[in-house]
Amino acid sequence: MRGERKTWLIAVAAVGALAICAGAALMPGTMKEQLSLATRLTARWSALWFLAAFTARPLFQMFGGVWGEVLRQRRYVGLGFAAAHTIHGFCFATQIALTDTTRPLIVWLVGGTGYLLMWAMAATSNDAAMRALGRNWKRLHATGVWWLWFVFTYSYWGRIWRPETQGLGSVMAGLFIAAALIRIPLVRRALGRKRAHG
Hints:
Radius of gyration: 18 Å
Low-confidence stretches: none
Shape: globular
Number of strands: 0
Strand content: under 5%
Number of helices: 9
Structural class: mainly alpha
Distance between the termini: 30 Å
Helix content: over 70%
Order of helices and strands: HHHHHHHHH
Oligomer: single chain
Number of domains: 1
Largest sheet: none
């Protein structure tokens, strides 16, 4: 699908994440509380950009309309996600470095692998890399998006079982699970038939 390249979407995602950080810094509370807030909110901001890129094609196939433009700009939506999520990673690392916050080793291994894959996808999100890598380009990006989907889904799923985050966990985990389901052709066809007879 061809169209105007809206590279400014990358800046929107990055500036949005930076604005969240600035807002968190202005909130009352300790530095630890401010960093925790910035880390949580930048994660949610980048999650929305990930979902937009992840679901662009199936939503266009199901509904058309505005999703056609999202699909045309999916590369820049994805790069916007990478920019926003990098800022989230900086917030997270700063929180760990400057406060007594800790995370188990598995978080560093799984999350760190997600970041490496994300940066590899961002570095190869251009036509020259697609030509040079051939089929390996698709393998890299498929592995990366599903790894990141797992990290987000697992993280929000865990929040369902804590009373203070149950609502957020239920909504976000539900969105990520639904996003995965609509990428399955059989599910899309079933939903399409339901709409047609609704």
